[in-house]
Amino acid sequence: xxxxxxxxxxxxxxxxxxxxxxxxxxxxxxxxxxxxxxxxxxxxxxxxxxxxxxxxxxxxxxxxxxxxxxxxxxxxxxxxxxxxxxxxxxxxxxxxxxxxxxxxxxxxxxxxxxxxxxxxxxxxxxxxxxxxxxxxxxxxxxxxxxxxxxxxxxxxxxxxxxxxxxxxxxxxxxxxxxxxxxxxxxxxxxxxxxxxxxxxxxxxxxxxxxxxxxxxxxxxxxxxx
Length: 225
Prior knowledge:
The protein is 42% helix and 16% strand. It is of the alpha/beta class.
C-alpha cells in the first residue's frame, strides 16, 4: 500500500501539474476513441500498451476478458458496453486477451478451481471454445484457448443490441487482439484468414484493402462507415 500512496502523492505533486490543461478539458466531458475490453490481470496496462492518455480509452475489465451473450448475466458488462456504444458513440471496440491468462487456464483445468467457485462459474461463459481446441501440449492448448476466447467474445458482442445496431449502421468496428506481455507483441485476429497475425501485418493488409489493391470482402469485425 505504501507504494500506491507514494504514487498518488507523486501524481498530485508533479504529474497533475504537467497535465493540468488535459484534466481541465476532461472536466467538460469525455469522448473516448475506443472501448477497450481486457482481463483484470495486473500485468496488463491498456494505456501503457496503446500509449493513450486519460480520456482516450473507455475500459471494461474482468477475469478472462469475457463478454457473456446479452441478457445472460445482468451486470456491469452489458451496462458498460451499452454506455460506450450507444451513449459515448465509440467507433471501435478492442477485445484484448493476453498470454498466460489464469482464467483461461482455469477453464482448461477446472480441477484447479475448487476453491474459486465464482471464477469457475464465470469462465463457463467461454466453455464453448473447448469444442474447437486442437490436440497439442498444455502450452499450445492454452495459447489456442486464449485466441479462441477472443473470437468467442467477439461473437458474444454481436448479441448486444447497441453493438448490433452500430455494426449494421457501419459506425462501429470490432478488433480482436492477443497481447504477449513478456515479448511486447500484439497479434490481431483476421477473420479473412481465420487466424491471428502480427499487428504490423494486420495494418499493412488493411492499408492494401483500403487502397483497393485487395478486392476481397471487408471483415465483418471491421465494418464502419
